[in-house]
Amino acid sequence: MKRVDDFRLRFGKKELVPIMIGGMGVDISTADLALEAARLGGVGHISDAMINTVTDRRYKTKQVKEKLQQYKHNVANSDKSEVQFDLGRLEEATKLHVSKTMEAKRGDGMVFINCMEKLTMNAPKETLRVRLNAALDAGIDGITLAAGLHLGSMGLIEDHPRFRDAKLGIIVSSVRALQLFLRKNAKLNRLPDYVVVEGPLAGGHLGFGMDWAQYDLATIVAEIHQFMLDEHLDIPVIPAGGIFTGTDAVAYLEAGAAAVQVATRFTVSEECGLPANVQQEYFKTSEDNIEVNQISPTGYPMRMLKNSPSIGAGIRPNCEAYGYLLDAKGNCSYIEAYNRVIAIEPDAKRIKVMDKTCLCTHMRNFDCWTCGHYTYRLKDTSHKLENGNYQTLSAEHIFNDYQYSTDNKIALPVKLELELAK
C-alpha cells in the first residue's frame, strides 16, 4: 500500500515531500509552523493577513498604534475613506516578517506566503502591489494568490527581478476561475507554477456560495485535470480541503495530484498561532457546532465554530487601527451593519450585530474561530488528559503522520503523562 512518502512534488529539478501546509491568517500559520514544514522537506505558508498587526506582536513594532493615533479623530465617523495605510510602513512590515522567516529557514523544503486579494485595505491595487513586491524583495520562496480571482495580480510584479524565479501559484475552486486567471494573465507569458484546488470542506472563507454542499473536491480536481490535458498544460495541481489522513492524500496523489494542501490538523499543533484555550475549543467541538455562515464582510461564505465569540459581537468598527477590509471608497459591510443596529437601538449599552462581524478586530484577537469541516475529528488525533483537555501535538508528528500513515490510520502522540513520568 502506498504512502505519501512514495510521491514527490517537483518544481523543475527540486523535489519535495508533497505536503503543503495552508496559509492561515491572522498568524495562525506562524513562521514556526511554516519553518517546520520546510525543515521536513515540504512546503509551509506564512500569511500576510494583517501584516502590520503581526509585526507589532512578533517584532515589537508599533504600526497599529501609530496608525490609530494618526486617524483617531475619525473614529466616530462612518466615512473611512481618509483612513489610508502608509505604503512605506506596509512594505517595511512585509519585509520584516518575510526576511526574519527566511533567515531562520533550514532543510530542503520551501516557505511560501499566502496573499489574499480580498484584503483591499482602502487601496486594493496599491497595497497589493506593495505586499507582493516586498515579499519577493525579502526572499520568499513563493507566493500563493488567495481569496480572489487575482486577474491583475501577476501584472503588479511582472517587472520584479524575481518574477520568473519565485514560485507563483493561485487558489481556485472551479475550472472557470482557473480559465479566467490564465486568460487574463496570458500576455505575461508566465504560467503559474502550481494551482491549489480548494474544495467546499476547507476552512475559513470558501470559494463557493451557500450551495457549497453540492460540490465535491474530487470532482473539481478531475475537471481541472481534464482541462489541463485538453489545453496541454503541465501545471502541478494541489487539492485542498477535507484531506484529513495520509490515505486521503494518497488517493489524490494516485489520481495525478502533485501534492496536497492540509491545514485543519495543524491548528492544534504546538507551532500554530492559536492560543491554547482556543485550540481546546477546536479539539472539543462537535460536528453540529460547525457552520458555514455569511457574516464575513468580504462577501464570501465562511466556515467557523458556532460558539465563536465574534458571532453577534457588536463592537464599534476599529478601522482607524486596522481597516484591512475597507474597499477602494473606504466602505466595509460591517460598518453598515453596525450603524443599522445603532439606529434601531441608539440608547443600548451593548448591542448585537448578527448579520456581519468586525473581522479585523476578531481575527486579531483570535475570537473568530474559522475551521475546516473535519475539525470535529481532531479529538481522534490526540489523547484526552485527566483535566479534560486534549494534548497538543508537534507539527513534526502531524507532518510525519501524513507522510507515512496507511489504512486511514492516525498515529497518536506519546501520551503526555508518560513523558512527564520519565
Core attributes:
six-stranded parallel beta sheet; single chain; alpha/beta; 422 residues
Could you walk me through the main structural features you see in this protein, from its secondary elements to its overall organization?
By secondary structure, the protein is of the alpha/beta class. It has 13 helices and 15 strands. The chain has helices spanning 31-39, 51-59, 63-71, 87-103, 124-137, 175-185, 217-230, 246-254, 276-284, 333-344, 359-364, 395-404, 416-421, and strands at residues 9-11, 14-16, 19-21, 43-47, 110-116, 142-146, 167-172, 194-198, 204-205, 237-240, 260-262, 290-293, 302-305, 312-313, 352-353. A hairpin with a 2-residue loop joins β1 (9-11) and β2. It is globular, with a radius of gyration of 21 Å. The mean pLDDT is 96.
Q: What is the SS-derived class?
A: alpha/beta
Give a short account of the largest sheet. Answer: 6 strands, parallel
- Main-sheet strand order equals 4-5-6-7-8-10
Distance between the termini: 36 Å
Number of continuous helical runs:
13
Low-confidence stretches: none
